[in-house]
């Protein structure tokens, strides 16, 4: 392969050659052996194709034609928005599909084979993973199974940034080191419109200077700023845009010269809604018009949308839609699909006229091509992004942009930059202003028109050290949000899910234990959550006047709540128990669950003045992840958009009253058949339901493959119909580490010897694929071989044998996996209680004790880093960073194990080893914070993937 093959690669994947700037980036990167710090390309000229460039360079590095370390296994595209239609993800899937379907001998086939070689994948396995970062409270939040897999990953600044700095928002503490390693090593992070994420880019640069994992021999993180409104970068080279070369390219020239004329209109805060709605309606009176209306706040977008749909004049017969980022993905999905169908750049032209009212969420990450735009004044850089959504392909000869100014004394979101931009446009657009991409590159823009940059806190080693401590986190944990968004822009975020089943028949909140058990029966998924500002949520809970909120994190201070209300929300505490908390107790990055009856959300998104009960979409979110679960409560029909059969209530009552196991089994089968019959035939969800006919068909198919009924872990929780429909390809996502019983369950029994052997082989394979030094690989493999030795404890073995100590004693060999069904958590917890294991017992603590005793018994020194070996064993479930959790274990006994044919005898329990904290500090200094996390990740991902495969 050589750089000239990039042309063929782009033609095979996309059907057209690259733009000149794209080919130039490939050439200069290979020649210089480094990524550009800045890519300056006008909107509409394919910045998303940096993903193609990254994949191509990775293949060249794998083959030795590009410098070692130039290509990176993990390619991140970061957008500082709630992503509406993730153009980067769609683009990435197009690349992945082209690689997987490539014919032998083509450039795509060659690249696919090289990418597979990076993880020892077989022909036919996916060459490139494409994933969206997700939040969540269980291992289902996992998004990549191994650190040697090539992947394109998309996410927001909050998602990527919080994971990089060991504080993943909505991610369990045990998962955080894995996520940090996957972001912070062997990666390139591309930040779309990087001027919108200056605090994050500064923190990234500081972290690179303060930490090094060079001892591992892997490349660190490179940062690429993508921008149509270029800013100077002090470090690294910039990929400059050659206008003359692109004007010789027919497609590029048409897009650069795409006609769009700007006019400026003065209005007022009282009349702007009427002004914007009137102008949009007038533009939409033309056949085939696609009018995009952009507002600066969610509140004003709603007002304009309401004004448009309530107009009585026949001149406005256009379909009118509302799109904003402050919504649940499952609610947004249908609207986004319709928006893409009608406004997408590749749409089919029709005489239908449409108006789309939107917030800033359309500025980045969605490929729209409107015929006309009406927008509020904003900062100049934001307006340039909006202009790029009009006549994007240059197919219209008379596209217009109307900027309307409300002349607010204290403008929200953009502050005085908005007022200064209005003054500039008022003078510059007297006779119309050409805002084509080419013209915009030559506009003499005065200073002060862009949003004032945030105050950037200085990132110190002490902060990185504190964040690296994930288990347990320090009590004085430094706040992360200012390092992602700046001090001035600290409009902190929380994630909110709405759930049924959190109140009793009298409307009173269930106890935290009961409500938490109801949530745990169907874990929260990111698809059912809305990302909202902390201030807005607090004001809503306190029944205050709704806060003004935008779809960018551009204004507002860290809120200090005043007042009190009876409203409480459910939040998981540091010890994994659920708690009801008041508004004042909410903190940045919290993931909370609120009762559906609180309202606050409609079909478009966040609406704090709407008091109607919110539709619970947890079942749909779980189904979309490949796991079908139904909660058989009275609200089930409403959630699915169907009418519940009366017999379902009778069956639920029969289940509750049944005590005999045989009778319960009969009732359970009747419940299954009742639901199957209910969902059979051609059923259509009610209007407004996010469920589609295809979703219901998938649910029917899942039911036909087998179903069981379980009443969960607590008798107070309603029964849930559980269906084992997880795809084997994603089975590793379901590996749970909540309790010893969770992490040691599998649908079939696995001996300890077989499990340790398989995990050691997988760990060695991953280490070899990553090219780690041999001495490190040896330690990793040994840690994997010995990581579960603590399971030989007789109480643990009794738990694995269903709670029977006698069965464990009679067994031929110790088990690693119990064979208890993964979905029958109640059975696993019963076994845990019968075994006598103390609450919170950690077998990895006993494993480390056994390994330490083995090392002391060796006649010759261990040929590797003993501290690292012990740490990898102790941390293989995410604890011991820097301490293992304390456990009240009143009994004393001994454990015997064989290590390398050497018998080891140790006494239990052991106390909390405070020296582990010193060891953790030394290992972070030795291997780097992200380097140590990566070494842990190799063992842990090997353990998870092997477990999911049945070994």
Topology summary:
Layout: H1 5-14, H2 20-32, E1 38-40, H3 50-63, E2 74-79, H4 87-100, H5 107-117, E3 129-132, E4 151-156, H6 157-164, H7 176-184, E5 187-192, H8 198-210, E6 221-227, E7 238-239, H9 243-247, H10 250-256, E8 260-266, H11 272-283, E9 290-294, H12 298-309, E10 319-323, H13 329-343, E11 354-358, E12 372-376, H14 380-387, E13 399-405, H15 416-428, E14 433-434, H16 437-440, H17 461-468, H18 481-485, E15 493-499, H19 512-520, E16 529-533, H20 534-541, E17 569-572, E18 578-581, E19 591-595, H21 618-624, E20 629-631, H22 636-640, H23 646-657, H24 661-679, H25 693-704, E21 708-710, E22 720-722, H26 740-743, E23 749-751, H27 752-770, H28 774-786, H29 794-800, H30 805-810, E24 815-818, H31 825-835, H32 843-857, H33 866-874, E25 893-899, E26 902-908, H34 915-927, H35 929-948
Parallel strand pairs: 1-6, 1-7, 2-4, 2-5, 3-4, 5-6, 8-13, 9-11, 9-12, 10-11, 12-13, 15-19
Antiparallel strand pairs: 8-14, 15-16, 17-18, 17-19, 20-22, 21-22, 23-24, 25-26
Overview of the molecule:
There is one protein chain. A 7-stranded parallel beta sheet has the order 3-4-2-5-6-1-7, sandwiched between helices. The protein is 39% helix and 13% strand. The protein is an alpha/beta fold and 951 residues long. The protein is built from 35 helices and 26 strands. 55% of the residues are buried. Strand 17 (569-572) and strand 18 form a beta hairpin. The radius of gyration is 29 Å and the shape is globular.
């Amino acid at each position: 392969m050589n750089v000239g093959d990039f042309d063929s690669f782009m033609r095979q994947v996309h059907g057209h050659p690259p733009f000149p700037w794209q080919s130039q980036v490939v050439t200069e990167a290979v020649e210089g052996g480094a990524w550009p710090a800045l890519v300056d390309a006008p909107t509409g000229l394919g910045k998303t194709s940096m993903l193609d460039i990254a994949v191509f360079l990775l293949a060249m590095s794998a083959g030795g034609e590009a410098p070692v370390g130039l290509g990176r296994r993990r390619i991140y595209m970061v957008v500082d928005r709630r992503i509406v239609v993730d153009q980067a993800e769609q683009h990435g899937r197009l690349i992945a599909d082209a690689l997987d379907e490539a014919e032998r001998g083509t450039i795509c086939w060659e690249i696919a084979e090289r990418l597979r070689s990076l993880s020892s994948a077989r022909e036919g396995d996916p060459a490139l993973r494409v994933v969206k970062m997700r939040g969540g409270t269980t291992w289902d939040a996992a998004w990549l199974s191994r650190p040697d897999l090539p992947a394109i990953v998309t996410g927001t600044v909050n998602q990527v940034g919080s994971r990089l700095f060991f504080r993943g928002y909505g991610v369990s503490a045990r998962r955080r080191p894995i996520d940090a390693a996957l972001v912070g090593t062997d990666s390139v992070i591309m930040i779309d419109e990087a001027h919108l994420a200056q605090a994050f880019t500064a923190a990234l640069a500081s972290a690179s200077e303060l930490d090094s994992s060079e001892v591992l021999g892997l490349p660190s993180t490179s940062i690429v700023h993508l921008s149509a409104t270029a800013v100077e970068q002090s470090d690294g080279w910039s990929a400059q845009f050659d206008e003359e070369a692109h004007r010789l390219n027919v497609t590029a020239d048409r897009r650069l010269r795409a006609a769009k004329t700007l006019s400026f209109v003065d209005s007022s805060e009282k009349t702007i809604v009427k002004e914007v709605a009137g102008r949009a309606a007038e533009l939409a009176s033309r056949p085939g018009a696609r009018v995009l209306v952009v507002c600066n706040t969610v509140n004003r977008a709603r007002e304009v949308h309401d004004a448009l749909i309530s107009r009585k004049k026949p001149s406005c017969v256009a379909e009118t839609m509302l799109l904003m980022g402050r919504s649940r993905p499952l609610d947004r999905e249908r609207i986004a699909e319709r928006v893409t169908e009608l406004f997408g750049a590749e749409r089919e032209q029709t005489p239908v006229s449409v108006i789309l009212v939107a917030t800033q969420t359309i500025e980045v990450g969605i490929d729209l091509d409107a015929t006309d735009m009406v927008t509020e004044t904003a900062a100049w850089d934001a307006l340039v992004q909006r202009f790029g959504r009009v006549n994007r392909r240059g197919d219209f000869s008379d596209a217009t942009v109307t900027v309307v100014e409300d002349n607010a004394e204290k403008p929200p979101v953009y502050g005085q930059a908005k007022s200064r931009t209005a003054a500039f446009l008022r003078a510059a657009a007297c006779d119309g202003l050409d805002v084509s991409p080419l013209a915009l590159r030559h506009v003499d823009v005065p200073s002060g028109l862009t949003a004032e940059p945030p105050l950037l806190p200085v990132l110190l080693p002490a902060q990185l050290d504190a964040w690296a401590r994930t288990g347990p986190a320090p009590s004085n944990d430094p706040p992360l949000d200012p390092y992602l968004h700046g001090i001035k822009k600290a409009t902190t975020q929380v994630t909110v899910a709405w759930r049924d089943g959190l109140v009793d028949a009298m409307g009173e909140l269930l106890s935290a234990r009961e409500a938490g058990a109801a949530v745990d029966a169907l874990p929260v998924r990111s698809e059912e959550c809305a990302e909202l500002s902390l201030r807005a949520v607090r004001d809503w809970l306190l029944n205050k006047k709704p806060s003004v909120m935008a779809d960018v994190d551009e204004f507002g201070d860290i809120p200090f709540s005043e007042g009190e209300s009876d409203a409480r929300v459910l939040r998981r505490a540091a010890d994994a128990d659920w708690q009801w908390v008041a508004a004042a107790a909410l903190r940045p990055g919290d993931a909370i669950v609120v009762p559906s009856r609180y309202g606050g959300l409609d079909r478009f998104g966040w609406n704090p003045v709407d008091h109607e009960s919110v539709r619970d979409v947890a079942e749909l979110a779980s189904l979309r992840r490949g796991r079908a679960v139904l909660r058989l409560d009275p609200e089930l029909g409403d959630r699915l958009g169907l009418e519940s059969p009366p017999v379902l209530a009778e069956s639920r009552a029969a289940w509750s009253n049944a005590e005999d196991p045989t009778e319960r089994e009969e009732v359970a089968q009747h419940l299954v058949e009742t639901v199957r019959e209910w969902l059979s035939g051609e059923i259509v969800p009610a209007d407004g339901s996010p469920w589609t006919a295809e979703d219901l068909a998938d649910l029917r198919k899942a039911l036909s493959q087998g179903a069981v009924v379980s009443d969960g872990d607590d008798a107070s929780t309603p029964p849930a119909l559980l269906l084992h429909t997880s795809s084997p390809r994603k089975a590793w996502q379901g590996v749970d580490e909540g309790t010893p019983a969770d992490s040691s369950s599998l649908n079939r029994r696995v001996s300890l010897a077989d499990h340790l052997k398989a995990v050691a082989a997988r760990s060695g394979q991953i280490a070899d694929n990553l090219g780690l030094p041999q001495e490190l690989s040896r330690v990793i493999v040994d840690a994997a071989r010995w990581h579960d030795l603590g399971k030989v404890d007789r109480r643990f073995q009794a738990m694995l044998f269903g709670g029977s100590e006698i069965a464990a004693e009679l067994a031929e060999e110790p088990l690693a996996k119990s064979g208890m069904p993964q979905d029958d958590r109640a059975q696993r917890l019963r076994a845990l209680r019968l075994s006598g294991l103390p609450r919170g017992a950690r077998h990895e603590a006993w494993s480390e004790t056994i390994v330490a005793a083995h090392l002391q018994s060796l006649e010759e020194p261990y040929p590797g880093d003993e501290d690292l070996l012990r740490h990898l064993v102790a941390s293989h479930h995410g604890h011991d960073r820097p301490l293992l959790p304390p456990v009240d274990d009143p009994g004393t006994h001994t454990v015997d194990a064989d290590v390398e044919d050497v018998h080891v005898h140790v006494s239990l329990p052991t106390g909390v080893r405070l020296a582990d904290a010193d060891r953790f500090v030394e290992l972070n200094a030795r291997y780097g914070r992200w380097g140590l996390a990566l070494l842990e990740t190799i063992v842990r991902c090997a353990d998870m993937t092997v477990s999911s495969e049945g070994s």
